[in-house]
């Protein structure tokens, strides 16, 4: 009989185990991981960089931001350093008519009408997202109007430019691994709220999601946490398939027939995989409903290394925003590229990182790695010039092939189910739930995973060692009255989707027109 069993060896589960043992080293604890490694959706590999040498690159989650306090604090605690994402120079876009164009601003050059439409849409999203809390999206005044809408149908009410619609769709692919046509706009707004705004999610500026990278890779976070909690407390290659609860304990049974019993358990498993586990007694209806309606994104990440960072020498940042462009490959609707960035390491190894995501990810996954490599390099040549042909190595990670993840980077909500979203993080008897999807700040990111692990550890301590916690420690946990979802029957929808006046929109449009005119004319 353990005090605690933690399921999942990613940043969330390992953080929970670490904080528990920090609070009370006498706790008996074991962490079960399905894979033969720790790290979850972070994966740092040694990649061929030529001359018989290798360098470390992240094939999973890789970026951190100074505004992501949970991960920044953990990095400092573990002695890990960060360095800025390279963003200097000209950027490349391929939108609308599939032609390659360049721009130097924060957003692509979309023509006068396109710029106005995009800016107004972003303003509307920022304003609305601020009123859609990730803790309970359905408590928002917009729930009645938007619950059944996708991001695609939502944006088409405000946008007519094909290029602008593609910018939004590419953003969804890169951030969520799915197309705008599949994702609930309520989830989209709540996710933006948890990051402090949609531009924080999409940009590589200070405080934004792609601001910095970790020297040596992000998987080190998990590896160093294993050392902190003790390797003897971590059991690899033990996928949990069944969870049984009694009045006295919780029993976790793995695929290989092992059984682990504890007073409490923390499940830091992606919701799409929790839906496949067997629970006795069954999960409550709302929990089952939300787990079954949170599919995970489809994303392939690639790293292309070079002898020199020729794009920098030519004045380019390495950033590419692409709809994929036309392709002659049979069965493919578009080329593979969605978004690319400079991936040059802190040791100076030049590289480009990019994503094949959403529908394109599904389509191109039917091809061989060689075919994907050829198409990716062709796309880089179109964007950055013929020097992109002279690459050293191509490395990719098809996350949908990972049986204990099923995709990447995160799960996303489908329309019509966000009323059950708060149940994602609520305990079920002796079971507590962690994972980046259960976070309330920077949901979906490494920082969110760490926050969720810290929150779950406090919930367990509240039951096993309540004397170790103060009332302040319980803020944000399930034992904080303010964090509990409202009674669903008492929800009142206030206001309407277009509560902002037409006068504001006219004034905003005029301001954008004046700015664009003064900038471009």
Overview features:
alpha/beta, 33% helix, disordered C terminus, 16 helices, 7-stranded mixed sheet, 521 residues, 20 strands, 8-stranded mixed sheet
Strand coverage percent: 15-25%
What is the β-strand count?
A: 20
The number of helical segments is: 16
Radius of gyration, in Å, reads 23 Å
In which range does the helix fraction lie? 25-40%
Q: What does the average pLDDT come to?
A: 91
Low-confidence stretches: 487-521
The biggest sheet, with number of strands, parallel, antiparallel or mixed sense and barrel status, is: 8 strands, mixed
Structural class: alpha/beta
Describe, in plain words, how this protein is organized in 3D.
The structure is a single chain. 33% of the residues lie in helices and 20% in strands. The protein has 521 residues and is α/β, with parallel strands linked by helices. The strands form four sheets. Strands 1, 2, 10, 11, 12, 13, 14 and 20 form an eight-stranded mixed β-sheet that branches. Strands 8-7-16-17-18-15-19 form a seven-stranded mixed β-sheet. Helix 1 packs parallel to helix 15 (446-464), helix 2 (69-78) packs across helix 15 (446-464) and helix 3 packs across helix 7 (185-195). Residues 487-521 have low confidence and may be disordered.
């Amino acid at each position: 009989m353990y005090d605690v069993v933690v399921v999942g060896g990613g940043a969330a589960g390992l953080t929970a185990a670490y904080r528990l043992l920090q609070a009370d080293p006498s706790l008996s604890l074991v962490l079960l991981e399905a894979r033969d490694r720790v790290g979850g959706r972070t994966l740092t590999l040694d990649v061929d960089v030529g001359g018989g040498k290798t360098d470390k690159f992240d094939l999973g989650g890789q970026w951190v931001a100074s505004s992501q306090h949970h991960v920044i604090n953990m990095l400092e605690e573990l002695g890990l350093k960060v360095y800025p994402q390279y963003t200097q120079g000209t950027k490349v876009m391929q939108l609308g008519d599939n032609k390659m164009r360049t721009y130097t601003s924060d957003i692509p050059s979309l023509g006068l009408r396109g710029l106005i439409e995009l800016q107004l849409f972003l303003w509307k999203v920022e304003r609305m997202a601020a009123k859609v809390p990730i803790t309970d999206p359905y408590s928002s005044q917009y729930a009645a109007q938007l619950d059944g809408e996708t991001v695609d149908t939502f944006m088409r009410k405000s946008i007519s430019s094909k290029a602008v619609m593609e910018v939004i769709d590419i953003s969804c692919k890169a951030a969520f691994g799915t197309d705008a046509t599949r994702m609930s706009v309520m989830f989209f707004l709540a996710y933006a709220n948890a990051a402090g705004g949609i531009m924080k999610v999409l940009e590589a500026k200070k405080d934004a999601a792609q601001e910095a990278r970790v020297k040596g890779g992000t998987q080190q976070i998990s590896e160093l946490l294993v050392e902190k909690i003790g390797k003897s407390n971590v059991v690899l290659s033990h996928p949990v398939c069944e969870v049984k609860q009694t009045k006295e304990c919780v029993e976790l049974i793995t695929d290989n027939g092992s059984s682990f019993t504890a007073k409490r358990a923390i499940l830091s498993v992606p919701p799409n995989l929790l839906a496949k586990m067997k629970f006795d007694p069954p999960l409550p209806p709302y929990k089952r409903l939300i787990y079954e309606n949170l599919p995970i994104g489809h994303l392939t990440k690639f790293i292309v290394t070079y002898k020199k960072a020729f794009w920098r020498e030519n004045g380019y940042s390495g950033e590419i925003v692409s709809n994929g462009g036309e392709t002659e490959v049979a069965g493919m609707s578009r080329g593979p590229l969605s978004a690319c960035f400079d991936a040059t390491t802190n040791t100076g190894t030049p590289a480009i990182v990019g994503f094949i995501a959403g529908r394109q990810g599904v389509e191109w996954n039917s091809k061989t790695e060689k075919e994907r490599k050829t198409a990716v390099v062709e796309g880089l040549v179109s964007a950055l010039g013929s020097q992109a042909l002279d690459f050293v190595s191509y490395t990719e990670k098809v996350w949908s092939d990972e049986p204990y993840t099923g995709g990447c980077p995160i799960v996303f909500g489908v329309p019509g189910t966000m009323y059950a979203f708060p149940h994602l993080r609520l305990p079920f008897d002796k079971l507590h739930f962690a994972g980046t999807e259960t976070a309330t700040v920077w949901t979906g990111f490494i920082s969110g995973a760490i926050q969720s692990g810290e929150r779950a550890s406090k919930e367990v301590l509240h039951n096993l060692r309540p004397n170790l916690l103060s009332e302040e420690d319980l803020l944000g946990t399930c034992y904080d009255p303010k964090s509990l979802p409202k009674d669903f029957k008492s929800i009142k929808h206030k206001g309407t989707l277009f509560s902002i006046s037409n006068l504001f929109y006219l004034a905003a449009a005029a301001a954008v027109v004046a700015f664009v005119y003064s900038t471009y004319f």
